[in-house]
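Deliverable D4.2, example record:
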Amino acid sequence: MNTQEKWHEMHSQKRHQPRYPSSDLVAFVLKNFKTNDQILDLGCGGGRHVKFLAENDFIAYGVDYSKNGIKATQELLDLHKLKAELKIASVDDIPYEDEKFDGVICYGVLLYNSKEVIEKAAKEIHRILKKDGVAYIVVRSTKDYRYVNNEKISKYEVLVNENDISKSAFEENGMKMYFFDKDEVKRVFCMFETYEINHIEISLEDGFICNHSYIIILKK
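Output generated by the structure prediction step:
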């Protein structure tokens, strides 16, 4: 089963459809965008961030390559009587015209793709953003336990093999996953005018496990 098929299957399950938007993203969007800005959630999954955008008076769009993800997003919007434009598509071939969006969010999505797809996705995000538009991207870093504890396929890519059913990585078994250090962030997103690299770190099991992600803020 390839990654797309895996996510199609996972998005059919309620436990893989988080209900609430990430607090860091909420704070960023409310601070940096204004009412009626057009914002795309690239890799919208079960729709939690599309819902957040729609209910806070942004013009919301969602793209995901999982049909079940788009279906779950539409059902969530319908439940709350909200509207957004949704499309099935890949991150490296975004079906919108140049300079359409004031903002793009891509939360925990790029890491499930190959180096080549990620590089194309970066160019696509740059293409669809308006001048001075902003992207908010979250990826996993090489400090994350999934990178540290798994077989390296290349410098930044690993094959996930987690035997502990209690860990979130268990559901990602068999997936290839791409991780970033700061040099790789700068290389992949070099076409942007400015960028900022922050991080989220959550330790578990008395510090033995570390979830470590980069928050990448890009301005065209």
